[in-house]
């Protein structure tokens, strides 16, 4: 039920947006592509940083980050979250956040660098 309400709200946003801020189909595609790539790449990025199922790899970026976080008392949540992602992957909530942030960043990047020509508007 909540998903259908979100879809209706999203479509309403697309249909009622004025022409100055209206989204194009390519904006939506960039957002979906950016979010998808980020969700798929996040566990690989955590593993590349040294966070894995067996723990933090020795002499990796993860050990340096963990040392700084525990020494300063700041960033411990980031280290523990990266360790969890490296060990088990993203949860549904984490996937939603990562997809939303990356999708928004991809759409903003597209609008900043590639919006020179007129395109068909959604709705």
TrEMBL record:
The keyword Repressor does not apply. Its main location: membrane. Residues 1-22 form the signal peptide. It comes from the Eukaryota. The keyword Transmembrane helix applies. Keywords: Membrane, Signal, Transmembrane, Transmembrane helix. The chain crosses the membrane at residues 32-57. Gene3D superfamilies: 6.10.110.10. InterPro entries: IFI6/IFI27-like, IFI6/IFI27-like_sf. It is a multi-pass membrane protein. It holds the Pfam family Ifi-6-16. GO terms for cellular component: membrane. This is Uncharacterized protein. It comes from Littorina saxatilis.
């Amino acid at each position: 039920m909540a998903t259908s309400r979100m879809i209706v709200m999203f479509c309403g946003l697309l249909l009622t947006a004025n022409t100055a801020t209206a989204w194009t189909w390519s904006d939506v595609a960039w957002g979906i592509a950016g979010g998808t790539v980020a969700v798929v790449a996040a566990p690989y990025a955590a593993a590349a940083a040294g966070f894995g199922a067996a723990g933090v790899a020795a002499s990796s970026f993860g050990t340096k980050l963990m040392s700084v976080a525990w020494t300063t008392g700041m960033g411990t949540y980031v280290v523990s979250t990266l360790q969890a992602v490296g060990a088990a992957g993203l949860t549904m909530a984490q996937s939603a956040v990562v997809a939303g942030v990356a999708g928004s960043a991809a759409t903003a990047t597209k609008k900043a660098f590639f919006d020179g020509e007129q395109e068909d508007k959604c709705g």
